[in-house]
Amino acid sequence: MKNKERSSFDSLLLSLERIENDLERLIHYIIIFFTAVFLAGIIYGGILGDFVETESVGSVMCLSCMGLQQ
Amino acid sequence: MKKRTNSKIAHHRIGQIIASIVTLGHAPALWTGNIYQGPLKSACVPILNCWGCPLSLFSCPIGGLQHFLNLHLFPFYIVGFFGVVGMLVGRMVCGWLCPFGLFQDILQKIKTIKLRLPYWMTYVKYGVLIIVAGFIAWYTMEPWFCKLCPAGIIEAGIPLVLADKTGDIRALVGWLFWTKISVLVLIVIFSILIKRFFCRVLCPIGAIYSVFNRFSLVHLRIDKDKCPTCGFCAKICPMDINVYDNPNQKECIRCLECVRRCPSVAVSLGFQRPQIWLGPSKEPIIN
Fold this sequence. Notes:
Chain A has helices at residues 2-48, 50-58. By secondary structure, chain A is mostly helical. Chain B has 14 helices and 2 strands, in the order ααααααααααααβααβ. Chain B is globular and about 65 Å long.
């Protein structure tokens, strides 16, 4: 009887371990998916000219950012 | 068996120093005073970095965000950039790369009375992000967070005014300069008294990454069997977190001081894992 209980407990733990492994994989897939979505955002922004815009704005000395006014 | 490292200098400190040198690495600005204009400026660094200042080599993501909002455009590049960094490492960049974080860590070394920050105040930064860096920037078409940001006045405002020989720059000092100085003085005082005051209360970049902290790929783990809940990790944590309670809460900057210095070696860095695990380790329960 005790052996049977132990064996069912062991199989429960084994199932939990499998579920955990599956969930781990699922979580990693979700992270990879969203990272890919955000990466696509960067690429799309690049196509729209965001890099050029960022470079041109960043190349101008921003006096107000330094607390200076004209 | 894994052992606690005994190196005196924190590893994240080396990262902070290198990142500060790299991001503020436009050395010719020291004698010419001219801003860097080149392809590196199209790349954002994932930290607070005054991109309108002469020493800066890269762009600031929060400055970029405001700029696109000023133009009433959706900032695909900036949102994507924040998302990728957030999904992968969460707030780790705040602990390892931010020069302003390094500045606050140095201020915190000043020996004086130390205060604990009420937890509700950590929500103020979401207001700063949404209202100041978001709505006001969009509505007024002016980057108001940049106008108040303390990084610009440290990295450029004060040095330029002090180094000015002709008086041209001193002539530009006005109410904005003194407002920024006042903001900086307040932040310096609070950063001496409270650990990483700016990061926890005001930083909009920290606010963005903190949302990702729970979901990011890089995660801290506590081995509950090893942890005696001695509270040492909470004592040394630069963000005043009870690491043994919840190591991946929104404020954790993953500086890994708790990993490095935990006497029981109970904290470790790893990848995201579900929380249903019952066993003490990753070893199979049944052999």
